[in-house]
Design brief:
heterodimer; A: alpha+beta; Phosphoribosyl-aminoimidazole Synthetase, Chain A, domain 2; 7-stranded mixed β-sheet; 40 strands; B: Rossmann fold; 8 helices; 11 strands; 22% strand
Chain lengths: 937, 264
């Protein structure tokens, strides 16, 4: 069958070409003079010249801005031009190519029935300043910028596209002899199958099969490895930990139980509907609705394929919310990267440049969130060298559901129904992959672990599931995440058993072995328990929204999970063993009296020479400077509910403390507040106090825009290094203890959480590169009337500025991580009362860069000046529990009354002249704006 | 009687509920109808007084934003939509809906249906000048006195844009002057002082020629626009509502369309 290659070029300016040229220069490819990007389409089929012309015109080009060339791929290539290299890129076999699928579908819709298969690619025409080994240069450029070997291949000259492989269907099942293995052999088996199981776990499996008097199939072994993986089983958080510290030794039976769940239990807030049980935490919203919230990480996949990793990270957390029968209404994303200006030559082997990781991750978040139509409203970006090889990608999602509609119990006889995307080899062993340390080979070996997202298919799932929920068409639901069907169906069947036929599962392409079908982490799939009489109604919904429904088996009402492939039983496991048989891990934790940063150093950094210079330097530093170039490529307005937007103020270029959402379809003026707290710098110094600080930060941010401090719930996301290292485990224990104590202090319950451990990279030099201990706290609060929401931009000259909270130099400057003032919860309550009474014109919290940066940002927001009276030494000190508040003159006494007995200071006044006056220093608002916008176009 | 509005839900539409909210507030009775239901019963079009193609990412923007939805419109509903347009009933395509109207030739809508099907497009919405998706609030001036959606609107509309392919361009041969003469420029991007943005970023957020944000057909009943007035129908949606600015200026556009729908 002939294959036609279509080259699409821009007759107008192609912004992609400019983008690649800029990025290439930023990565040090200065010999590149010009780069010209073209799209490639390969279409297989019997096509006449006229067919090709019509396809080019009607389908493949925009005739106003593009033109097309086409040829049969057997045509000999034309000789290259001097100083020019043509490089072509296309997807590797098995990588999902949604555009190719659309080409075939649309060609048929146009009547070109001769079209069989399609593939896509890109073509780069590279021009050089000087002729000198261009091919080697082009290959290096391809590797660093133009292509990703994990999902793409490239060639200089004409590429051969890969169409989906047509191979024979395979029922091959391997038996893995385990019963007679020695301890060493068990460990070798674990390693060979990349299962990340330790000796105790391998021995438990061995023991089970001795009892069953047989050996496991590969399907069974892989299922156990997934179910018992750190990712799915949270072994570290459930482990028994022997803690050694200078103040004595003690033992903890599960840090999640002891610290996180117990805090929620002790707080016992009546408005918490579900904590730590479902796919997402759920709180009460109003008479009609409940709100769910979940945050996940997708770190390892984002390290090796930033776009796909972040893309499916967003897709995955949306399905968590769908998994509690809720409609997703807002996304959050918090990202941690290495320094963007890092010298590419100093990167560890196999690691992508932080600049490329950031642009890929941001594009991935954008692509999924924007296309599926969920506003991305809150987030943060942090830079630290520790994230160079291990970027962190936290994706959060909020859902809204009518109360009491989420059902959780499959019934005997219910069908096991898969909705959504088809199953391919994508993401095999993703759960175990994410539980391992990465090395230079990880990208290649784990290539199959990369999933590609398809937000439009997931949008279909939202449409179907929210309607099916309202019609009561299912009895239980869960998402297919890590571990794929094995985890989703396995978990649903854990109390009721199931009998599943893998041959029923719809595949993207043939040839998958049974274990691959069962374990695949192909995206956009949900598993539902549906009674037989509701199947046809559900099928009708699915037809309307172009969503595939597949019946793969039955919930049997037994104690076993049985999986077949055609007539062969490929898995037959006792539920109790699969879900409860994992031995509790025994871990050692050492709590060091640490201090990696000396207090002299800390004080030195606060020892200022020039206030103005320091402030402008801080405002333009990567961690503080405006992220508007990223925020603006996320749609934060879709669904029409964004009351306080991520950027605010006169010119919409100042950073909001938190987002406020009024969900569409809700009747009253109630809203949802979303904020976050994260501080890896504190994580390096003192994990216990870091936890306090980030919990305080998340609550402080939420309260600043108007959230009721007594109606805030939080999520934890721990990203740590290898917990088998006692010091690492020690800091994790301390962070959890901090979480417990701080949650009780504020009365703020945890409703869900997630951990991502082993965020380490083993360099070719044998050095381990671990991330700073990073705890993200995501807060969700309630604001009773969105019309009372407060933004951080200064509103009017003559207004008084107060500093709330205890900012006392003497107590702060000697600490590595600041304490939380004991009256902080009372301050937040008083502030909330003042906001509700309409006394607060603007409010902004003190975070990185302290008082000076907070004041500067408020000036930027309002394009107004401020005059501050202060003790110079406290200007840049970072503290907890402090906010700046703007109050109109006529409200001053009422406001001050709210704060009787609480620490606050009248410290400044809003001025019409466009400058921030800090003592003798005067900095124009224009200078502040320019410094803050360093990284924006 | 409230005019009945058909909101066409394609695979990937995502501002359908937003626009239904706006239509309801504007006094219409909107119904979201999935494209597949319309395919099964294309006489449904006749039951409605107003047609809406909402924003979103139909077919994930594969092969160009709005392109594959335009193909569906041409393959399945060409007669029904032509009849709707020719009857003079109001039609609005927002963002992805606008892209589909342009790529199916319903806009700019010169000549007969047969003439249009033979001719290549002369206008398009291509990639934003800066090469990426962008979400920001902009100001719009209602220009056309012919367009039933924008006529009589004296005040500016403030609302967000959220698109990556909203850069209005024409072929060199296209007589853009006739566009002005025919009063087909419905909405233009302006500066905060009310003057035309004159191609300057960010007030013209995408590089569109003549600061075009929306156009209408020669009869004036079909409006296509990139910005999202449906996301500014409540006061609290205004980005500066905490600074005392009055919000909701997007609603007027829908009220105009609904008012007109009552008369047809």
């Amino acid at each position: 069958m002939p294959v036609y290659k279509f080259i699409i070029q821009f007759t107008h300016h192609n912004p992609k070409s400019t983008y690649y040229l800029n990025e290439a220069h930023a990565l040090g490819f200065h010999a590149l003079r010009k780069i010209h990007v073209q799209d490639l389409y390969f279409i297989e089929g019997q096509l006449s010249q006229d067919n090709c012309k019509q396809l080019a015109l009607k389908l493949l080009t925009d005739p106003v801005t593009q033109s097309a060339l086409w040829m049969e791929t057997s045509t000999p290539p034309s000789p290259p031009q001097p100083d020019t290299v043509i490089l072509e890129v296309s997807l590797r076999p098995g990588v999902t190519d949604p555009v190719a699928e659309q080409i075939v579908r649309a060609a048929h819709e146009l009547g070109f029935d001769g079209v069989q298969r399609a593939a896509t690619g890109q073509r780069f025409i590279l021009n050089f300043n000087e002729a000198n080994n261009e091919s080697a240069f082009a290959n290096k450029l391809a590797k660093q910028l133009l292509a990703n070997p994990v999902i793409q291949h490239w060639t200089i000259g004409d590429i051969t596209p890969s169409f989906p492989q047509e191979t024979e269907s395979s029922g091959a099942v391997e038996i893995i002899p385990i019963r007679n293995l020695s301890e060493a052999e068990l460990l070798t088996l674990s390693k060979d199958r990349r299962s990340a199981l330790d000796l105790a776990e391998m021995k438990a499996i061995q023991e089970y099969y001795c009892k069953e008097q047989r050996d496991p199939t590969d399907v069974e072994f892989e299922t156990i490895a997934q179910t018992w993986s750190e990712h799915c089983g949270h072994k570290t958080f459930k482990a028994k930990v022997d803690v050694e510290s200078s103040s004595g030794n003690y033992q903890i039976d599960s840090i999640i139980k002891t610290y996180l769940k117990s805090a929620t239990d002790k707080i016992n807030a009546p408005w918490v509907i579900s904590a730590f049980v479902d796919n997402a935490g759920i709180i009460d919203f109003d008479d009609e609705f409940e709100v769910s919230f979940k945050a996940e990480t997708h770190n390892h996949p984002s390290a090796i394929e930033p776009f796909g990793g972040a893309n499916t990270g967003v897709g995955g957390v949306i399905r968590d919310v769908l998994g509690v029968s809720a409609k997703p209404i807002a996304n959050t994303d918090i990202l941690c990267f290495g320094p963007q200006d890092m010298n590419p030559d100093t990167l560890p082997e196999g690691v992508l440049h932080p600049r490329r990781i950031q642009s890929g991750v941001v594009a991935g978040v954008q692509d999924y969130g924007n296309k599926i139509g969920i506003p991305t409203v809150n987030g943060a970006i942090l830079y630290d060298e520790g994230y160079t090889a291990n970027p962190l990608v936290f994706c959060g999602c909020v859902g809204l559901a009518p109360k009491g509609k989420h059902v959780r119990t499959p019934l005997k006889g219910d069908r096991v129904i898969v909705l959504g995307g088809r199953t391919g080899r994508d993401g095999l062993r993703g759960a175990t992959f994410s539980s391992m340390t990465m090395d230079a080979q990880t990208g290649e070996v784990a290539g199959a672990s990369v999933q590609i997202g398809d937000p439009i298919t997931e949008k279909g799932l939202i449409d179907v599931i929210t309607r099916a929920r309202d019609l009561g068409l299912y009895n239980a639901i869960t998402d297919c995440g890590a571990g794929g069907l094995s985890s989703a169906a396995g978990e649903m069947a854990s109390t009721i058993g199931a009998d599943i036929e893998l041959a029923q599962v719809r595949l993207k392409y043939a040839g998958l072995a049974p274990w691959e079908i069962w374990l695949s982490e192909a995206q956009e799939r949900m598993v539902l328990a549906v009674s037989s009489e509701n199947i046809s109604a559900l099928q009708k919904l699915c037809d309307t929204f172009n969503t595939e429904l597949t019946d793969i088996g039955e919930f049997t009402g037994t104690t076993r999970l049985v999986v077949r492939y055609k007539d062969q039983i490929v898995l037959d496991l006792e539920n109790e063993f699969l879900h409860e048989g994992i031995p509790q891990r025994q871990l050692r934790a050492v709590i060091s009296d640490q201090l990696s940063v000396s207090s002299e150093q800390l004080l030195a950094s606060n020892d200022l020479v020039d206030v103005k210079e320091n402030l402008l330097k801080l405002l333009s530093s990567p961690n503080i400077a405006s992220k508007s170039h990223v925020i603006r490529i996320y749609d934060h307005e879709v669904q029409g509910g964004t009351v306080v937007k991520p950027l605010t103020g006169v010119e919409a270029d100042a950073p909001s403390d938190a987002a406020v959402i009024k969900p569409i379809g809700t009747k009253r003026m109630k809203g949802i507040v979303l904020s976050n707290g994260i501080n890896p710098e504190y994580g390096k110094r003192d994990a216990y106090k870091m936890a306090w600080s980030v919990i305080d930060e998340s609550i402080r941010n939420a309260v600043a825009v108007g959230a009721d401090p007594d109606r805030i719930a939080i999520l934890d996301n721990f990203c740590w290094g290898d917990p088998l290292r006692p010091e690492t485990m020690g800091s994790l224990v301390e962070a959890c203890r901090g979480c417990h104590d701080a949650a009780l202090f504020y009365g703020t319950p945890f409703i869900s959480g997630k951990d991502s451990l082993n965020n380490e990279y083993l360099g070719a030099d044998g050095q381990r590169h671990a991330i700073p201990p990073t705890l993200l706290i995501s807060a969700i609060g309630i604001i009773h009337d969105v019309n009372t929401a407060v933004t951080m931009d200064l509103k009017a000259a003559g207004n008084i500025v107060y500093l709330l909270g205890g900012l006392e130099l003497s107590s702060i400057s000697r600490q590595l991580v600041p304490d939380v003032h004991k009256q902080t919860p009372q301050i937040y309550r008083a502030l909330h009362q003042a906001i509700q009474n309409g006394l607060v014109k603007s409010c902004h919290d003190l975070s990185e860069g302290g008082l000076a940066v907070a004041a500067a940002e408020m000036c930027i927001g309002g394009r107004l000046g401020m005059e501050l009276q202060f003790e110079e030494a406290v200007l840049f000190i970072e503290v907890n529990g402090c906010l700046l508040v703007e109050v109109a003159l006529e409200n001053v006494s009422e406001f001050e009354n709210q704060f009787a007995e609480l620490p606050f200071n009248k410290i400044g006044i809003v001025t019409t002249d466009q400058s921030l006056k800090l003592g003798n220093e005067e900095i124009s608002v224009e200078e502040l704006v320019r410094a803050f916008n360093t990284y924006n176009l | 009687m409230k005019p009945k509005a058909l909101v066409l839900q394609a695979r990937g539409s995502n501002r359908d509920l937003d626009v239904m909210d706006a239509l309801t507030l504007a006094g219409a009775d909107p119904t979201g109808v999935p494209l597949n239901e319309l395919r099964m019963n294309n006489t449904l079009f006749r039951n409605f007084n107003l047609l809406v193609l909402p924003g979103g990412f139909s077919y994930a923007d594969a092969l160009g934003a709005g392109k594959l939805l335009a193909l569906d419109l041409a393959s399945y509903f060409v007669e029904e939509i032509s009849a709707f347009v020719e009857s003079g009933k109001p039609v609005i395509g927002i963002c992805n809906g606008f892209q589909a109207l342009v790529k199916s030739g319903i806009l700019p809508g010169e000549g007969t249906k047969e003439e249009r099907s033979k001719k290549d497009s002369s206008i398009t919405l291509t990639f934003n000048q800066h090469g990426h998706f962008e979400c920001r609030w902009i100001n719009l001036k209602p220009v056309s006195k012919k367009c039933i959606w924008t006529k009589d609107l004296s005040e500016r509309i403030t609302c967000p844009i959220a698109h990556g392919e909203g850069n209005f361009q024409t072929t060199e041969l296209f007589p853009i002057s006739s566009f002005i003469e025919q009063d087909q420029i419905a909405l233009a991007y302006i500066n905060s002082d009310g003057s035309l943005a004159n191609g300057e970023y960010p007030n013209n957020p995408n590089g569109s020629i003549l600061d075009i944000a929306g156009i209408c057909n020669p009869q004036g009943n079909v409006l296509g626009l990139m910005p999202h007035p449906e996301n500014h129908i409540h006061t609290w949606q205004h980005p500066r509502h905490t600074r005392g600015e009055t919000g909701g200026s997007g609603l007027k556009l829908f009220e105009n369309g609904v008012k007109y729908a009552k008369q047809v």
